[in-house]
Design brief:
Blueprint lengths: L41 H15 L4 H20 L19 H20 L6 H14 L14 H16 L22 E2 L16 E2 L3 E2 L5 E2 L41 H15 L9 E3 L32 E3 H14 L5 H14 L17 H30 L4 H11 L22 E3 L21 E6 L13 E5 L22 H17 L9 E5 L14 E5 L2 H14 L5 H27 L4
Parallel strand pairs: 1-2
Antiparallel strand pairs: 3-4, 5-6, 7-8, 8-9, 10-11
Helix pairs in contact: 1-2, 1-3, 1-4, 1-8, 1-9, 2-3, 2-5, 2-8, 2-9, 3-4, 3-5, 7-12, 8-9, 8-11, 9-11, 9-13, 11-12, 11-13, 12-13
């Protein structure tokens, strides 16, 4: 059962806003003309302010998912206080107002403002975030120096809700007061120095931190230090929304990933080979093309890539038009587009942007669950954010619980380690080692005197006879604005993922994929909340312009990604991480399954809050 907190004190940031009166019991700015919200609800305004705060901060999907949910739950509490049946999550109060809509907007705004000030008070981009939050309050004609918590004023209710959230966050397992850092975790393996062609590991099944001359987050922020620290190994102990608690920190345990051992040795090696194969498909110059329309891709069974597309668009009843592009353009676009969302708001935030675009679709009917009367945008948005962000918060807790528990290796460590050991296919052949990479003609080969002679496939590797070569992406070009690396034969111990050289691989274990878990959880909620698995009109699309990639030059022409259903988009987010070289298939598939559980359970529980039967 969830816990409610009654805060004894309210922690607020108080500033003096020009134009405010000196009356301490008034929450509105005198003679203020409210800004035109352009059809957006107040909840939407605050969701967008939160997404902006995320984009300015260092990407930390666990932390941002928690902030999205706690802010959404606070906005829900403010809305529910004026509904006789709905039940609050942090604060369950019932108030009356002559203008219920205005009272809800005011309570929502004070709650969201105080929470975001608190949660992003030590984040990157603090000044810009503070300015945006203050400007948002001012545009809504609310006084930021109103700090009252007593009585029935909606602003006081909002402040009480914020205080409850702050207090809740002190003891929810996140280690917020320690800046979310679990100082007890120690990696088993020494750092992998990316610039050196090797991967020394004490245990090839465990996570290995990377060492770089400089780390830069995917949104461009520099990260202190030159050796990774595992982000969130304790997160499985954070209190979720619909998740059961777990003393072991694994609310949903899918079982172990494949390991380089007698039992699952073949699965481990097969997964690594698949990543190498995906890496070999990152070259637009190979001439290979692929139809990426919803008529050819998507409609997978949960936890697989077995789909062959949809027969027809249910909105138009016509087949989806082909969308044929160079495979090397599509795979690289896929890796970059889903990396952290279009504006680096991390995967939980990315699904908020998707939800907002769906809600804004022309002609879209805002019927919760796809049934009943249309509701106004405030009710729609508040309930959508509550369910959606409850799901992605649970996805973070569940996925990172697995990451922390199994502490699994990333592909860069797997491939470099096994390649450094040799080949495991031919006991009588050169460079045999049972823990080496399997040989695959045309993909994984031993460099020989014959293969490395002039005009041979391994000519450029002639000094490495006896070592293992793989056909893969050739690595970061000196000038990514003008050069496309393409694919070719490289040393297995030199392999890097298709990522920026200052990022390479996220700072936490691979199993399971956060992208897969977040995305499937969100897709489940979007499907249930809208009443259809399909995007409005049966199609959603995003065009990536030519020559807009950051890792190397491309795509060679505009590439339009398309999805028929929320599930199709979620599955594409998952597989993008394999093309990006930072996950193996078991990370993706098990993440999708866990995400499905999180999304379905969050939606079921959210409905009980809507009708007042949660407790």
């Amino acid at each position: 059962m969830r816990r409610r907190f009654v805060a004894l004190t309210l922690v607020v940031a108080v500033a003096t806003l020009p134009g405010c009166t000196s009356e301490s019991d008034a929450s509105m700015i005198d003679d203020c003309v409210r800004a035109d919200l352009g059809g957006r609800s107040v909840a939407r305004v605050w969701d967008e302010a939160l997404l902006d705060s995320i984009r300015r901060d260092v990407p930390a999907p666990t932390v941002h998912a928690r902030n999205l949910f706690h802010t959404s739950a606070a906005m829900w509490d403010a809305w529910a206080a004026f509904d006789p049946e709905a039940e609050g999550y942090f604060v369950d109060e019932k108030l009356e107002a002559d203008d219920v809509h205005a009272a809800r907007e005011e309570a929502i705004s004070f709650a969201a403002y105080r929470i975001l000030l608190w949660r992003y008070s030590k984040a990157a981009g603090l000044q810009e975030t503070f300015d945006e939050l203050v400007n948002t309050m001012e545009s809504l004609c609310y006084r930021i120096d109103f700090t009252g918590t007593e009585g029935d004023p909606p602003a006081a209710l909002g402040n009480r809700i914020a205080a409850a959230v702050v207090e809740f966050g002190r003891d929810d397992g996140s280690l917020e007061e320690q800046r979310y850092i679990d100082s007890a975790y120690r990696p088993v393996n020494p750092p992998l120095v990316v610039a050196e062609p090797t991967a020394n590991m004490l245990d090839p099944n465990r996570w290995q931190p990377l060492a770089l001359a400089q780390f830069v987050a995917q949104n461009g922020l520099p990260i202190p230090g030159n050796v990774q620290r595992f982000v969130g190994p304790h997160w499985g102990h954070v209190q979720g929304f619909a998740l059961p608690t777990s003393p072991e920190g694994t609310p949903i345990d899918p079982g172990p990933p494949p390991r380089l051992d007698e039992a699952t040795d073949a699965d481990f090696k097969r997964a690594a080979i698949q990543v190498i194969r995906y890496s070999s498909e990152l070259d637009p110059n190979d001439g290979a093309t692929i139809d990426i329309s919803p008529g050819a891709l998507g409609d997978n069974t949960l936890g697989t890539n077995d789909g062959d597309g949809h027969d027809a668009n249910p909105a138009t009843r016509s087949p989806y038009a082909p969308n044929v592009v160079l495979r090397g353009d599509f795979t690289r676009v896929l890796a970059q587009f889903w990396a952290d969302g279009p504006a680096s708001e991390t995967p939980p935030g990315h699904w908020n942007t998707i939800a907002n675009e769906v809600s804004d679709s022309q002609g879209f009917e805002h019927r919760i669950g796809g049934e009943g009367p249309e509701v106004n945008r405030l009710e729609w948005d508040v309930k959508l954010y509550f369910a959606l962000n409850g799901a992605v918060h649970d996805a973070a807790v569940a996925a990172w619980g697995v990451k922390g528990h199994y502490d699994s290796a990333r592909p860069i460590s797997m491939i470099r380690y096994m390649g450094g050991r040799g080949q495991s296919s031919d006991p009588d052949g050169p460079s045999f080692d049972p823990d080496g990479l399997p040989l695959v003609p045309g993909l994984v080969e031993v460099i020989t005197q014959r293969s490395s002679r002039r005009s041979g496939p391994h000519e450029e590797l002639a000094e490495h006879v006896g070592e293992i070569a793989i056909r893969a992406w050739k690595g970061n070009p000196l000038d990514p604005a003008t050069a496309t690396s393409g694919t070719g034969w490289i040393l297995s111990t030199d392999w890097v993922p298709y990522q920026l050289p200052t990022f390479v691989t996220p700072a936490f274990a691979g199993y399971v994929s956060g992208h897969s878990t977040f995305s499937r959880a969100a897709a489940e909620v979007m499907t249930a909340f809208t009443g259809s698995a399909y995007f409005p009109g049966g199609l959603s699309a995003w065009t990536v312009p030519a020559d807009s990639l950051a890792v190397d030059r491309g795509p060679s022409e505009d590439v339009t990604l398309q999805w028929a259903t929320y599930y199709d988009a979620a599955d594409q987010a998952g597989i993008s991480r394999l093309f990006g070289g930072i996950h193996i298939a078991p990370d993706d598939f098990e993440g999708r399954k866990i995400g499905s559980i999180c999304g379905r359970d969050a939606w079921a529980l959210a409905q009980r809050y809507f009708d007042g039967t949660a407790v």
